[in-house]
Specification:
Blueprint: E1 4-15, E2 18-30, H1 35-72, E3 80-92, E4 95-105, E5 112-121, E6 126-127, H2 140-152, H3 163-170, E7 176-179, E8 182-187, E9 200-203
Parallel strand pairs: 2-3
Antiparallel strand pairs: 1-2, 3-4, 4-5, 5-6, 7-8, 8-9
Helix pairs in contact: 2-3
């Protein structure tokens, strides 16, 4: 098992004496300078810095415009929020798997959350794809989709209608991570279910 550290970039951005944007960006790193770990650390730090740059530039400029508009029209001050956290879901036998949820609030009824994931072979120092776990199984995606639809059929009321087609059209082989119970396949908000149902996850 690799010892993983939680790092944090955090700041409140002010305009005209008011906080108009705040961000909380977590990212993992491993305490080691081996070349394999450097790839993991560099990749994750770079993702965090990209989101920090987006927050302090693109989103901050947008937050200023929203602040000015709301103040001129007597609306409440709205604080933009950027929140990214990660969860290590598997960490054994030199395999690390995790997902990160990136929540951005830019006004409206609620913000939006996007989930991304990574699965690493730490001996090779590189990420591995879903196909790696289904060697010599040409039709593994079909079997995964069948299992997802079987699980949906147990609680169809929390999903959109015509779910079979939605699962087929929105399935992304990059949207997976490992757990100790199996492979987790997930769908983004609104892909196959309403916002209230959240990010749907299926253990294969």
């Amino acid at each position: 098992m690799n010892y993983i550290i939680k790092n944090l970039l955090e700041k409140e951005l002010v305009y005209d004496g008011e906080i108009i944007l705040k961000y909380h960006i977590e990212y993992p790193s491993i305490e080691s300078n081996s070349s394999e770990n450097i790839n993991f650390n560099y990749y994750n730090k770079n993702l965090a810095l990209e989101l920090q740059n987006k927050s302090e530039n693109e989103l901050y400029k947008e937050a200023i415009e929203t602040y000015k508009y709301n103040k001129e029209n007597g609306y409440p001050i709205m604080v933009y929020e950027v929140y990214r956290n990660f969860e290590i879901t598997f960490n054994t036998n030199n395999i690390i798997s995790l997902y990160a949820d990136e929540y951005i609030f830019q006004g409206g009824a609620h913000g939006n959350t996007i989930r991304t994931s990574q699965t690493w072979n730490m001996i090779a120092g590189c990420m591995i794809n879903l196909e790696s776990f289904f060697k010599n199984q040409s039709y593994f995606i079909i079997e995964i989709l069948k299992e997802i639809n079987r699980q949906i059929a147990k609680n169809p009321e929390i999903y959109f209608e015509n779910t079979c087609n939605l699962v087929l059209n929105t399935f992304n082989p990059k949207n997976f991570y490992l757990t100790y119970n199996g492979i987790a396949i997930y769908f983004q908000q609104y892909d196959i279910a309403p916002y209230s149902s959240g990010i749907r996850v299926f253990i294969i």
